[in-house]
Design a protein that fits this description.
Rossmann fold; alpha/beta
Length: 201
């Protein structure tokens, strides 16, 4: 079965006070994709209240795709994803969700199809609203604090300059496999990212 991606979702919290925080790494990547395409006249964001999101339609190497940035808070992300999936008639296996991940080292990048939410509130709500975990994720490593009880505070703060550099390099690496993801070549994208990730420093 082809998992050609038709909808890319960047998870995060709305508002300027959250934009620079680790929890918004998914927003950073989707915003980067849109910005890169704006030079070609694409990637102009529109706020759509019925989807509770900012959205734009783009084309990458002949593949059409929609980008989505929910305007809900992280723990309500599923509302926006479900609304977009229903409105655009896109099934879960054609959805890519990009999010921060404290279980990966800073700057690590992984593609995953399905699986649990790992305690991530955005994924937890998407799972609940879609009624399935059968969507693709890009996990952006932001590292984990020394004490588990500090995780919430940790992801709601900005990374250090060194961490930010590593995360930005990971995002650039992930963006390079976007054409493969849109073509449904998920395994090729995984192979490239997962074998090259040791060079992201």
């Amino acid at each position: 079965m082809s998992h050609a991606i038709q909808l890319i979702v960047g998870l995060g919290n709305p508002g300027k006070e959250y934009m620079g925080t680790r929890h918004n790494a998914g927003v950073w990547m989707v915003s980067h994709i849109a910005s890169a395409l704006q030079e070609r006249g694409q990637g102009q964001w529109q706020t759509t209240s019925k989807l509770q999101a900012m959205t734009t339609s783009v084309q990458v190497e002949q593949h059409d795709c929609r980008l989505l940035l929910p305007t809900t808070y992280m723990n309500l992300s599923g509302q926006s994803v479900l609304a977009a999936a229903q409105y655009y008639k896109i099934s879960p296996e054609h959805i890519l969700v990009i999010h921060d991940d404290v279980d990966l080292p800073v700057g690590a990048i992984k593609i995953k199809i399905g699986g649990g939410h790992g305690g991530h509130n955005g994924l937890r709500d998407i799972d609940a609203k879609l009624g399935t975990q059968a969507y693709t994720r890009i996990r952006i490593g932001v590292g984990r604090p020394a004490r588990s009880k500090d995780v919430v505070d940790y992801v709601l703060h900005a990374p250090t300059q060194h961490e930010l550099h590593d995360i930005e390099q990971a995002i650039l690496k992930a963006c390079s496999v976007l054409p493969l993801l849109l073509a449904g070549e998920i395994n090729k994208a995984m192979q490239y990212l997962h074998t090259e990730e040791t060079n992201i420093k």
